[in-house]
## 1
Amino acid sequence: SQTIHQWPATLVQPVGSPLSLECTVEGTSNPNLYWYRQAAGRGLQLLFYSVGIGQISSEVPQNLSASRPQDRQFILSSKKLLLSDSGFYLCAWSRRGGETQYFGPGTRLLVL
Amino acid sequence: AQKVTQAQTEISVVEKEDVTLDCVYETRDTTYYLFWYKQPPSGELVFLIRRNSFDEQNEISGRYSWNFQKSTSSFNFTITASQVVDSAVYFCALSERYSGGGADGLTFGKGTHLIIQP
């Protein structure tokens, strides 16, 4: 069966510090991968998606970036965090040609 | 542009009552997919159901049922005989046409916080 991992689970960072969140998927090959952000009291917003290694599409311009160095690894990064980057970050995967997305446990980020 | 509206921000019912969560969507595509996800306090989104735009059959899974009506662009979710464990935030989501090998993100509603009181 497929499993999706995210770490860290919780992170508190000062404004201006860098960020690296990692997501890995097990039990499948060539997945589509996604990063979403959920701000407090709001719905989920798609940030990035990837259909393959090195292929990243951005949905919302911001100071975040994403990379996919390996088939089942998706990384969300920032060089300098802003207060507005606080939120709950969810990684998701879907099969190539599949519509359903399955989500990881999420990372809670608090920028102070 | 696609849009999902969940007008009910919060619903509170007593255990064993039936409850319906509303979802209204907007899309220009003729082929699309609708989803419901459950988000318990732990935060992880749990997939509940997916419906294709060309299949309007309602679905029942245990105490859960879904009513898909293209005429009113609605995809409502009913929990029968609610239980405390049903307490969570429920999200309705939409994905427009999906071409093989491509990827489309989900457009989510803002969620309905369901509280089941014992």
Note: The first strand of chain B starts at residue 3 and ends at 5.
## 2
Amino acid sequence: SSQLTQPPSVSVSPGQTARITCSGDILARKFVFWYQQKSGQAPVLVIFEDHKRHPAVPDRFSGSSSGTLATLTITGAQVEDEADYYCFSTDIRGDQGVFGGGTKVTVL
Amino acid sequence: VSLVESGGALVQPGGSLTISCAASGFTFIDYNLLWVRQAPGKGLEWIAHITSTSRSISYADSVKGRFTISRDNAHNSAFLKMDNLTAADTATYFCVREPSGLAAPVTGFDFWGQGTLVSISS
């Protein structure tokens, strides 16, 4: 299956740790990427190749992947981290991409 | 770095439309390009991808046979030709770049345009 499943929402208080999961069979064989989309803006790359953080992204963001489950972790979430987060990977042949349904992170 | 989409419009069902992406501020040939769309209030959908030299092109099943992605490396531009449009194609269409080199320090979709809105309605 090339589907990626995310929880619709995650809510944390400022300073707490937010964990966003992404599950799918393809993750056992393919990298996962994470994108952040703030309201009214274009998405930005947060994590690539499972765990590598984009240079412009704060180090409170981290990624991991094991088997069919990937996790984006925000350690010490800030109000400015409120956004929709999408995981992404490719199908087993690598010629089609698929996004997860997105997770709305609320920090309040 | 800039990716500017244009050409979004209101189109009748069954109609056609071509949207464009103008790139600047980077070496265009060093990047693959793709289109990602987002229906109003919905999530992201990967729809088409073209490699740096146009050697490899791929489409999502939802648009295969109706949409055509292309690029003009001489003019730092990319295009998406859309035929037989339906209401389900209503979305903001983002032009996105992806480093093509195997040794790229960052992989993935590292820069996105702001999008152009395509609306299908009678």
Note: The interface with chain A takes residues 34, 36, 43-46, 49, 56, 58-61, 94, 106-110, 112-115 of chain B (CB under 8 Å).
